[in-house]
Amino acid sequence: MRYIVHVRQFNVIGLICQVFSVISGHRYISQAAAKIDVDFDYDGPLMKTEVPGPRSRELMKKLNGIQNAEAVHFFCNYEESRGNYLVDVDGNRMLDLYSQISSIPIGYSHPSLIKLLQQPQNLSTFINRPALGILPPENFTEKLKESLLSVAPKGLSQVMTMSCGSCSNENAFKAIFMWYRNKERGHNNVTKEELESCMINQPPGCPDYAMLSFMGGFHGRTLGCLATTHSKAIHKLDIPSLDWPIAPFPRLKYPLEDFVKENQQEEARCLEEVEDLIVKYRKKKKIVAGIIVEPIQSEGGDNHASDDFFRKLRDIARKHGCAFLVDEVQTGGGCTGKFWAHEHWGLDDPADVVTFSKKMMTGGFFHKEEFRPNAPYRIFNTWLGDPSKNLMLAEVIKVIKTEDLLNNATHAGKALLTGLLDLQARYPHLISRVRGRGTFCSFDTPNDATRNKLITIARNKGVVLGGCGDRSIRFRPTLIFKDHHAHLFLNIFSDILANFK
Ligand SMILES: Cc1ncc(COP(=O)(O)O)c(C=O)c1O
């Protein structure tokens, strides 16, 4: 088959780099070079031009003529991209550790997904996109059970599908506000005044409820979500927003084992502030109906907190009658070594609502039964996701289970983290605060300029990395990222650090 031919291509540049780095003594010491263990992966990066190359630059210019395309890194050739490798339009093949902002679960062009698409009985699911809320296909419930519900977080029996992460959070907020109002209303009926006032954006029909969020958090760019997003000013500038409480998120000191007491105090300070804000806002007649939090603040700089912090936060939510919403849009799907990152916390009472997207192929949210809307069309949009994505997700979950990819994330993550810690010890002026769970790893650089330079150099050496926060580099590989990919990266990056000026 065609992809086999590409896999067998001789990686001259990779070989030269390896020989050079061994001679120059820069090689990341302990590990073997890359090998192929999946039949659709390439054997290493292969670079022909700098990135973006001439063809990418030409296409960027064209696109920029019809929209602001300044965010485009380069144009891709998805036909040629395989496994952990992204190929660009100039023929450069790069080890992709960013995987489309963390959204490719089992690599590019996975044979199982290709097979799924080739099955004639699946064709109509891809061709006819339904308005799922009113006209679902016959197998819709069965596919939801086979896909999303088969991996539902403990205690959450209900699921709604959506099209993206922001859309999922936005609708989760609505479900929480409706739940809160229903609690307050008790057995009373909706009043005429509520029905009339909501039409002009006024209470009591539009109650003064709020979602509490954290500084550094990112929950999307739509209007409601943006009120809970506090990662970068560029996302928020010029957009009117809501007076909702924003709590500090712990800023942990590393290495964690050297700062146990300081970090405990920092977490206690943040939790105290959460409670104070809930009380303060209530005094202003603004009720905190829910708390939203990411298990690891991702866009905001890969900020971690301890499992204990989250357990206590869950308790605070319960104590004050607030819904507890865990945003697993970036952390969900297995990259931390558990299907949901919040499973690491060991909650005795599950989260009330969990949102997802990215690696889950479809957006949406799981929730407890009490968060079901009490009437149709209250949580609704035209598509409500896309059944073709549920079909693909069912296959992705099958691959995750049969190939034991959660354990793989733990294992490969350990190889990556160990290597990063070693590099941190050797280049402390360039790398600090190495942290991670599974393959969801990151480190800090001294500043924004150094971070961006490292990302650019790595890309030209055949490794795609992502930035987050103001000076962090984050790893978001696919679930088929193995130990040998980690060592391949560490070898390349070790050389980059040794030669960095
Ligand atoms: C934690 C989190 N929530 C929400 C979103 C928004 O998702 P989307 O970009 O699909 O709207 C993101 C996107 O990066 C995210 O990381």
Automatic annotation (TrEMBL):
Q: Which GO terms describe its cellular component?
A: mitochondrial matrix
Keywords per UniProt: Acetylation, Aminotransferase, Disulfide bond, Iron, Iron-sulfur, Metal-binding, Mitochondrion, Neurotransmitter degradation, Pyridoxal phosphate, Transferase, Transit peptide
Per its UniProt entry, what is the enzyme's top EC class, as one word? transferase
What do we know about how this protein assembles, alone or with others? Homodimer; disulfide-linked.
Q: What does this protein do?
A: Catalyzes the conversion of gamma-aminobutyrate and L-beta-aminoisobutyrate to succinate semialdehyde and methylmalonate semialdehyde, respectively. Can also convert delta-aminovalerate and beta-alanine.
Q: NCBIfam families under this entry?
A: GABAtrns_euk
**This protein is called what?**
4-aminobutyrate aminotransferase, mitochondrial
Which species is this record about? Catharus ustulatus (Russet-backed thrush)
